[in-house]
Amino acid sequence: MMRCTSSAALALGLILVTLISQSYGQKLQVGYYNGKCWNYNVEEIVFNVVKAKFARDPTIVAGLIRLQFHDCIVRGCDASVLLNGPKTEKTASPNLSLQGFYVVDAVKAALEKACPGVVSCADVLNIAARSAVFLAGGKWYFVETGRRDGFESHQSEAIANLPSENMQVRDAVHLFASRGLSKEDFVVLLGGHTVGATHCDKFESRLYNYHNTGKPDAKMTSNMLYALKKTCPRRSKNQVYFKNNPKSHYRMDNTYYKNLLVNQGILEIDSNIASSPLTNSLVKKLAYAPGYFESRFGPAMVNMGRIGVLTGKQGEVRKYCGAVNHHKH
Ligand code: HEM
């Protein structure tokens, strides 16, 4: 009798799980596309396209890593950042300096050739970012897939949700927590700033008029202040690399954290995570514990890739990442 009841309960449970997964689609999983694109390896197709583009233009590694962040933090990882149109996320001012869209388009075109309508743009962003991390010398990690693409993208949401470079650590930790990410995830993910560059206007006030004092930020070393002022006179449109070692501009290593500890953070948020008691010990660990940053970055990207994922009928697989297939009525 007992056995009968428990197996009936099990059967009922299975039916329920099946029904739920049919209406909401499947959860994210590693290798979701295995066997779904003939006998092509979807992740390998993505990697090869990114690798070919990277060979000509290493800056795209920074572009692709940042794209995943800017997608996931606004409306979840639904490829809303890729939609073109008058008032879409792309048009919000922090997104005007995003780069790497052409790589996403090339990846998507290669996938559509292999198996049309199978691989979502949201997954392309996540797989492409992992490819970028690896090509930049970071550790390979297993990426979860199975996301669908969203139907909406709003400039106002990007403005409201993308973090500001002058943010206090406490507020940034809250923002990430509201997306299910821990304080450690936040500090590790900010290590994305180990690659790429920033425009001068994003930290100009630190050079000339820090918090309306009429003076530079006292946390900057005089050497660095001198060098940055040279590249960034007032109202300059120039860019500076996050790291000052030319060999390391596009290398996924932990010199970002080492620099922070000698007051060489460029953006205020970079410098803040080193000085804040909330995050200072984590920064030290990331700077000094061998291999720690390298082993934590991938898992933190995976956690970020879980934000607000759409499955089943909540989304679609776009044919072209810049536009939805059907407008919802
Ligand atoms: C509080 C959080 C963050 C703030 C305030 C912030 C802010 C910024 C700013 C102001 C820039 C320069 C953009 C420009 O010049 O127009 C930038 C660049 C960049 N950010 Fe962040 N960021 C944050 C978190 C992240 C995270 C979590 C990642 C990735 C995991 C990331 C990856 C990048 C990369 C790779 C670049 C360089 C892009 C390039 O060279 O094309 N950032 N960020």
Automatic annotation (TrEMBL):
The active site is at 70 (proton acceptor). Its cofactor is Ca(2+); heme b. CDD domains: secretory_peroxidase (cd00693). This is Peroxidase. The lineage of its organism: Eukaryota, Viridiplantae, Streptophyta, Embryophyta, Tracheophyta. Heme b binds at residue 193. It is an enzyme of class 1 (oxidoreductase). The gene is LOC110684637. GO terms for molecular function: heme binding; lactoperoxidase activity; metal ion binding. Keywords: Calcium, Disulfide bond, Glycoprotein, Heme, Hydrogen peroxide, Iron, Metal-binding, Oxidoreductase, Peroxidase, Secreted, Signal. It is found in: Secreted. It comes from the Eukaryota.
